[in-house]
Amino acid sequence: RDVAHAYATLLARFDKEGKLENADEEALREVLRGPGSPCNVSLAEVESLFNRAQGNEIRDLRKKVDALNVTHAGAPPRAMVVEDLPNPVEQRIFKRGKPENAGAVVARQFLAILSPEKREPFKNGSGRLEFAQKIAGRDNPLTARVMVNRVWQHHFGFGLVRTPGDFGTRGDLPTHPELLDYLAVKFMDEGWSIKKLHRMIMLSSVYQESSEVVNAKAEGADPENRLLWRMNRQRLDLEAMRDALLSVSGQLDPAMFGRGVEIAGEGWSHRRTVYGFVERQNLPNLFRTFDFASPDSTSPQRYSTVVPQQALFMMNSPFILEQAKGLAKRGEAAKETQGRIGGRIGEMYRIAYGRGPSDEEMRAGVEFVEGELKEEGGPATVATAAWQYGIGKIDDGHHVTFKAMTKFTGGVWQMGPKLPDPTFSFANLNAQGGHPGNDASQSVIRRWVAPRDCVVSVTGTLMHPAEQGDGVRGTVVAGAQFKGWDVKHGNAQTALENIEIKRGGVIDFVLECRGNQNFDSFSWPVAVRVNGGGEQTEWSSVAQFGGTARPGGLSAWEKYAQVLLEANEFVFVD
Asked: Which tens digits make up the pLDDT trace of 214-264?
């Protein structure tokens, strides 16, 4: 109160120009520096005056600031480090584990079981550096033998010691003890170079053995292949499998270094899997499905399981479908060689497997692709896969930009897992209609894809039921033909006749908000009918609505590419 009174008195003595005389200015400085000054109060004292709700709010804001400092684009790279104390703590034994019952001082020194009879205490700081040097020293062969065994295990599926996390009396004996010792000594002689160790193993004759060797005598004497008379067939780990998929589709991002990225779920990155973000407390199902090592504990080896979830992922994952499309596109370059189908199949085999197809594989591939291409041209098959659902806009030239919706809830297509979406608000499409996004750039689009060259007509009824709001605008765009209708608390018949369209061409039914998106729910069932020739084919947006026809549903070649990616030859090292 005294400080506040003095401060108010000084302020009252300001001259008309807002200035203080010299003496008053000095007095003000003394007030602000004084023990009761607001400028001399610690942050902890201020926080002590907060109530619980204010304190929680401050903590939440600090967490957001800390997260931003780590994740925003301009944040510098950081690494966790350990720094020695100027004066290391001398640790004591706690008798019966009780800190209050301290015993003798324990010197900082190497493990007794791995040391000579006389141990010397560490002398430099905490001793961490000396401890590391002892672990990786030539007089401690265990480290080199364990490391060599892990590298061998990586290449062959099993180590020379089958218990890589236990080299003690309860672990397995090495199958080739002399080889293990030789590799360990060579590893140390080569400066502990893992790269040179890989090279030495991979240039060996045992590494170059085939996994397809047939040897009945060896099979009977050594069915587990402990003596390495053939190569073990191995499935790719998650990281190698995902990178291989991105590579054959031509979408692998080769950039080095950088922050961790999300590789599971929607909006995945094309970066190498080694840069995948791993949250230890919330490991994505994709990681668990493909036997990723637990990030919560030491994992001396990964186990390889075969479970239905793996096959379901390869058949249904949007990530796999995208890679299949990429592989099909790469194979298209050879479509004119050796016949359209045969040349393209051969190119896709070379991209996916690094070899050409056998005669039998070629016959099966041609039969599959020809059958799918034939069905693509038939109305019964394509009618259920002709509709796509997306978001976009119509530009000044009446061209439509289209971005496929990514989430199907069972009755609604939308852009994300929740409505409203942070970016696209209430944009969605259902069987009867839906709701547009925030503005004309977030119009919802129901797209029909022509299965073949034909002439069609479009019919439908656009309805805006709400009395409030400014209504909606619906536009049908079919190449150079287009027509729009504005509807507010009413309906309009939406029709276009005699639309000539080529196979793969599209007709877009675009629904946009007008001034704002309030009260813009709409109904717009439409139908596309083939004209002439006595044909009665019809594609109904209501009857054929669903999630099984994925956005950008797979073509015949894309289906074939997915078959190649699902084969054991792709995911197994054989």
From this structure: 889 998 998 989 999 999 888 889 999 999 999 999 999 988 888 888 888
**Residue 443 DSSP code:** E
Q: Which two tokens stand for residue 74?
A: 């301009």
Q: CA–CA distance from 514 to each of 407, 463, 494 (Å)?
A: 25, 15, 18
**The token pair that represents 99 in the structure block:** 């800190």
* DSSP of 310-357: HHHHHHH-HHHHHHHHHHHHHHGGGTTSSSHHHHHHHHHHHHHHSSPP
CB 491, CB 480: distance < 8 Å:
no
Instruction: Name the token pair of 349.
Output: 């085999």
Q: Is 10 helix (H, G, I), strand (E, B) or coil?
A: helix
Write out pLDDT tens, residues 56-103: 888 889 888 888 887 777 777 777 788 888 888 888 899 988 888 888
Is 549 in a helix, a strand, or coil?
A: coil
Predicted confidence (pLDDT) per residue in 466-525, tens digit: 999 999 999 999 988 999 999 999 999 999 999 999 887 899 999 999 888 889 999 999
* DSSP count for the chain of H helices, then E strands: 18, 20
What is the rounded (10 degree) CA torsion for 360, 362, 368, 373? Answer: -160
Question: What is the per-residue burial (b if ≥16 Cβ within 10 Å, else e) of 464-473?
Answer: beeeebbbbb
Angle of the 177-189 helix axis to the 194-202 helix axis, nearest 10: 140
